[in-house]
Write the structure tokens for this entry.
Amino acid sequence: MTWAPTRPETPPADLEQRPLPRGRPLLQTNLTTASGIGLGVAMIWFSMLVLIPLCAVLITASEGGWGAFWSTVTHPQTFAAIRLTLLSAAAVTLVNVVMGTLIAWVLVRDRFWGKGALEVLIDLPFALPTLVAGLVLLSLYGKDSPVGLELAYTPASVFLAFLFVTLPFVVRMVQPVLEELEVEVEEAAASLGASRATTFRRVILPALVPAITAGAALSFARGVGEYGSLVLLSGNLPYRSEVASVRILGSIENDNLAGAASVAALLLVISLAVIVVLDAMQRRVADRG
Amino acid sequence: MRSMRNVAVATAGVLALTGCAMGAERPADHASLSVVGFAVPEAANKAIADEFAKTEAGQGVSFRTSYGASGDQSRAVAAGLKADYVHLSVATDVTRLVDAGLVEENWDQGENKGVVSTSIVVFGVRDGNPKNIRSWEDLVKPGVEIVTPNPASSGAARWNALAAWGQVISDDGDEGAATEYLDRFFANVVALPNSGRDATTAFLGGTGDVLMAYENEAILAAQSGQGFEYVIPDTTILIENPGTILKDAGPVATAWLDFVLSDAGQRQFALKGFRPIRDDVDFGGVVEGAADPTDPFPAVPTLLTVHDDFGGWAALTAKFFDESDGIVSRAIAASGKAS
């Protein structure tokens, strides 16, 4: 399985492909019949799978009114679970930005024995059922851990599981961009007297930023929603290793759908905000470059 | 190596779980029966189905089966999953179907009170019982680590919490003492997996000194070579799993339920580790996998029941399991704050 990345919308340093200036009349389109049908199909597809279900979650969450929503998400145990989930996802995203870029770099720029195998194995966390991932992690980091790290049932287990399932995102986003980056540009920078560090910071990194942020956004969102790999690993200890999904499950078990949807809606809104902020950051960096 | 084997076995279990068996496809001119159940009695129901097929009523009946977490299965049926017969862990999961208009209101008024299989809560312990766990008091000693499924997310786990509370009351304790016991109990809990099976996996993987388990699961685990020693405390709770047919089920479903409740059906339950719902069921006296196979179901000195000691599920659910005010929910939350 290969991850087909969406190309960054705004390749940096390519002024011709800047987004269209704002303020253009919305109705003025240049759609042909074929592309109109294409857009229609895309929107129906997207609505059936994503928009309508998400709206249903928001509507269910709003059933009890603002007061019920607020008391659900500020319930101390639920709040602790939401905080653990978000902080772990954020920390994992930061690690992925560094490690993912590094791994992509190694895969693109270096020649070494076993590279082909590594290339394939990177996608394993996507292919492996997360429940199995949890089992594997439990046998490695559980009681009597063969590597001496007993992380199961601690807050670190959540971090570990997120790390596992989100590993491929940044790698697979950065890799194709890095592959297309021409070595001549770096050589030119070097010939103009730039050090390796300066070349990386001023030439390579700006080109990678859109891909890195796109990977980071996916990584964060995936972490927030992760559940399967934690089933066996985290132990669901309240205030310690219990994530938001488990609170949602508890609400569902009590037939409290509004409560479950409230937590889900909050996670949804925060994930959306993070994606928007990352996108804005990426645009600013791209504009500077 | 042992952990590798555990992983292999557990992986096989996971695969078996995900592969919700859809039953053998038979020609359409035979009656079919959709069985929706919680995960635990799958093996027993399969054995009963094999016996049922040998009877006149059961000849040529094709089964479609779905097994999973009790609450999930109940919600699925309420949402439209086809079912003729449901076998769930707790009565509240059937009540949901009554509320949805799918099950008759008087489903639990029969001679069996709606119960089709029973078991008891036991303590799973390490080989040789190194921490000498015998009683509920032993569980709350310092340094004893308990694994129990999470009563917040697993309906089946609620039996464990009720047993822990009820044994204090039956021992002449008041509600304050019982609440205090629950706090100490959950303070010793090291993992709260979401289902009984996950809890067993965690325990077999090396977590904890005690596993809160069902007697039938301990026996079935031993039968499949994944056994652990278990101890029956002097006071425990009778687990009563409800089963019923749905309103629009055909006559074959009625015949099936009658067979499940008959001695022949209960015999199969017994052989898989469930306590028969009547004392006089002849299962041959030997159940492999039991602590003592020739006396598989020893009498428990004090056996609590939901009906007699807790006033029924309707009364106890809010009191114990309300998300923010339930006694058990509070005890679980307190355990996290203390540590």
